[in-house]
Amino acid sequence: MTSEEHFAEIKSRFGKRPQDLDGAWGRLVVTGCTDWATAGRKAVQNSADVTTPSIVRSVAHVAFRRIFTSHSGATHVAIDINGTAWLWGRNEHGALGTNAPDPVSGPVSLLNSSFYPANTLPSGLSQSPIVHAAIGRHHLLLVTEAGEVYAAGANAMGQCGQDDLKDLHAFKRVVAGGIGKEKAIQVAAGINYSLILTTTGRVYAFGSHEKGVLGSGKTGEYITGKGLAFQEQPTPMPVRGLEGKDIIQISSGQQHNLALDSDGYLYAWGYSALGRTGMGNQVDLLVAKPVSQFAQTNVLMRASYICCGPQNSFVIDGQRMLYLFGRWKTSGDGSSGQPWMHPRPVHEIQAYKQRLISLGGATLFAVADDEGTNNVTIGWGQNCTNGELGLGVDQRKSATLPIRVETLDGLQILDLAAGQNTTYFLVRPPHALEVLEKLRKAVARESDGTPASTTSSDVWSQLPRWPETPDTPDICIVCKEDRGETDPPLECDRCEYPYHLSCTDPRLEKVPDSEWFCDDCLADSGEQRAASSGKKRKVDAFEDQAAKGKTKAPKGKKKAR
């Protein structure tokens, strides 16, 4: 391979997640605060934190492709393998696009007619798969495969792209300013503004002008009787400074933004305090400017993947080395008193080739290749108080320097999303291709070239489930018999109800090597919340327990009771 071909191959990866994850799917795993009403607030929690990464029980049978959350909020979105969005968390201002009570404890499918009646969903949202999402403090954006953007939640500054500056309790399409004529592929969201990236490489911004976050060349400040205020901008407008650039990835902090172009050049705009834009000074950027650190002649020294946190930023370069800048600690080097004004390599993990990155309210996460092992998950952060680092029961909750998250050793991580007080992972189960083959009739768009899962079966079997199940029977629920150790029952990996192998339909001849779910759980597609008979389903009981915040460890082998 010539040097030109090598550079071209490197550039082809810019702005993309690892290519060997294409077509793969995983189960949703959570750690940290799950009391959405009090997350990040000085209120007494109503439920205990999850301190060990745990499979979310109510969707333990759902195959997910992507997970999204907010570094400055408590609303969450997961996208399954069919392109269906599942939403949950804080619903203040209608951020979930529903009038359901606030908060929503666990994932709810956008196809759930009780939460999302057909007459409240735009046809383009209900009929086209979801491919991307972004969440601000109190608003949410969804991108469909057709390239349309839909928004819900707080719109006081026009961050949902609607001229009527009232909260949106139902999703509406963003069409103003010509954005409806372009095809969107990505979205990003700050506290009260939004960005859209289109297939043409253009970036559009709307919402509050404060600190220059829209890249319009102004801050929109004006004086009112109550003090300083900022102009709202509900109509999406192109970000200045990016004209003629082929932008392929965008990311937003609370009030700053990064954009990556197809040549690996990095651009920043917005609030520059504490070095979060990587410019070396604290002068706010009212239009997009190139970050000199990544404007190198050598393509290996340019940026290949980006992520913004509340007041900091991550960049992976062409060598897959991780850089950090801004404020990421509460004291010492990296704090407000000593922020990292320029991008610096994270020396403690310099030997690892980075694959995935995410920045939460107080957390910093990276998933990297580790020679001879599956992958290594690295996390750190000061003032982490809810177990969002996932270090385990009775372990420390904060880490000043990067450490290996040993609770995730042996697990193949497909995606991660660090939130304000919560962290999510998509973990590929063992024998994932075998599981998928059994469900192929119900699953769409799986890549035949997807490699086999590298997750350890032994490690997977020890993952806890959240929340704890209500009391489950001790004997087979079909025959109602206790056959002792000669014929122990098999437990469903979701509801933990016991079945003898001979009582399963179709009958199982041996304990499966892969996951096993009972017919009731497999039939729960999330499209309706309760049966017409009014009988309470298992998932409703799970959500009742979720509100209480209990986590249940696995009993060991799935057949042992």
From TrEMBL:
GO molecular function term, any single one: zinc ion binding
RCC repeats: 83-146, 147-200, 201-263, 264-319, 375-429
SMART domains: PHD
Membrane-spanning intervals of the chain: none
PHD-type domain: residues covered: 473-524
UniProt feature, compositional bias: Polar residues: 450-460
Nucleus is among the record's keywords: no
Gene3D superfamilies: Regulator of chromosome condensation 1/beta-lactamase-inhibitor protein II, Zinc/RING finger domain, C3HC4 (zinc finger)
Biased amino acid composition, Basic residues: 549-561
Pfam families in alphabetical order: PHD (PF00628), WD40_RLD (PF25390)
InterPro entries per the UniProt record, alphabetical: RCC1-like_dom, RCC1/BLIP-II, RCC2, Reg_chr_condens, Zinc_finger_PHD-type_CS, Znf_FYVE_PHD, Znf_PHD, Znf_PHD-finger
Gene Ontology cellular component list: membrane
Top-level taxon of the source organism: Eukaryota
Residue ranges, annotated region (Disordered): 444-466, 528-561
UniProtKB keywords: Metal-binding, Repeat, Zinc, Zinc-finger
Protein name: PHD-type domain-containing protein
Species whose genome carries this gene: Mixia osmundae (strain CBS 9802 / IAM 14324 / JCM 22182 / KY 12970)
